[in-house]
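Sanity check

After download, print the first record. It should look like this:
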Amino acid sequence: MNAGLLLGFVLGYFALLLAVAWWTSRRADDAAFFIGSRSSAWPLVAFGMIGTSLSGVTFVSVPGAVGLTQFSYLQIVLGHVAGYVLIAFVLLPLYYRHGLVSIYGWFEQRLGPVSHRTAAVFFIGSRTLGATARLYLVVRILHDMVLADFGVPFWLAAAVVLLMVLLYTVQGGVRTIVVTDTLQTAGMLLGLVIIAGFLLSALQLSPPEALAQMQQQGLARVWGTEPAARDWWLKQLLAGVFITVAMTGMDQEMMQKSLSVARLRDSQKNLLVLSLAMLATVSLFLFLGGLLHLYAPTVNLAVTGDRLFPTIVLGHLPAWVQVLFVIALVSALFPSADGALTALTSSTCLDLLRLPQRAGLTDAQRRRIRHAVHLGFAGLFLLLVLGFRALDDPSMIGLILKIAAYTYGPLLGLFAFGLFTRRAVRDRWVPVVALASPAICWVLDRQQAAWFGGWQIGLEMLVLNGAITFALLALVSRRAPR
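Expected structure tokens:
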């Protein structure tokens, strides 16, 4: 399809987002930016969080990985469902009871100010790396599909995309992204369903017949049965639980959307509905991946991994399917960047700069500081996207989960220690503990073949990291005074 026409669709879609942003950000203040004035409708939040949780990496990497890992990713997603239940009934009541705007504010009350800032810094580092890795993959595909034909260099493509995100999030914050994420999730899911339907028609198969062929070719295996392997079902299920607890329940980006709902009960409904919607959506992504791997041999295509889906669409499917793919891809791109920018700005302003507590600042001065922080993170995103371009990992979803295992582990240990013990930590030692735990995990990862033989440490590294953090915190703690 003509690249100019594809670009026109992208620009039209972006104009729609800007119109929504203008409408939702009218008379927006700090409360609207940070927490949506606690007036978001929970069904809207639940639907929009599907797009935020999945992102462009799921849209491209999960179908592309079916040839290598089959349907085993479903084991992790089943663990996600249990993780959402834990968040809804353990963490959300805690956040609502304390009236938190930044969830890391709880650490100051429970462990101390240094613990509070340490948790915020680890979130900021982890979310920055994870969000830019997701963003890089989709920008790369958009550049290769559309902008390269106009001679646009990759760095300029990334800068333009980030400018788009910056324009519609800088004022409205959470109030805006709750609405835009809903729109974008609808676009992503609509494209997913229609493309899957087209492939079924092209293959002349019904869904049960397609699934039977996937099983015959070994593409539909779900359960890993070898305990020493990375994909053993118990490892994957537990990893799924703790990944969700850490990357959703202990993540400011995800939780500030849930906290924008007025009542705890409605916020819990949001997460429970989200868990089932995520299970259904990822199952459809895996089914689509199976269809892509069935279709590729019919057109003599040997591409695998992240490049499989876009290569089939661009080279072998009709123009209208290419338009749907681009819209769905852009719909998957923006939720992974807009929420991250807003959450990182929120955490920096609330946890590190402590803007609400700084006396002597006018509302206009606070707003200027917030805008400067927002712009600074957009610049950092650009630099990291260019860094991932140099790295060019063949499967970004594996890289993102590995980053999460190292960076969310200390948050998991800090939350667990604060929730399940009554001991007081020596606050000044908390940053040392939070850095030491990932360092120990890195050594274990590098030496696992020599030290553990056939046993392979996979995504359970997150749990191990949290457990080491918990143990080290116990060493630097003391009995709490009555």
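If your output differs, re-run the checksum step. Summary of this record's structure: Residues 3-395 form a domain with the Sodium/glucose cotransporter fold (CATH 1.20.1730.10).
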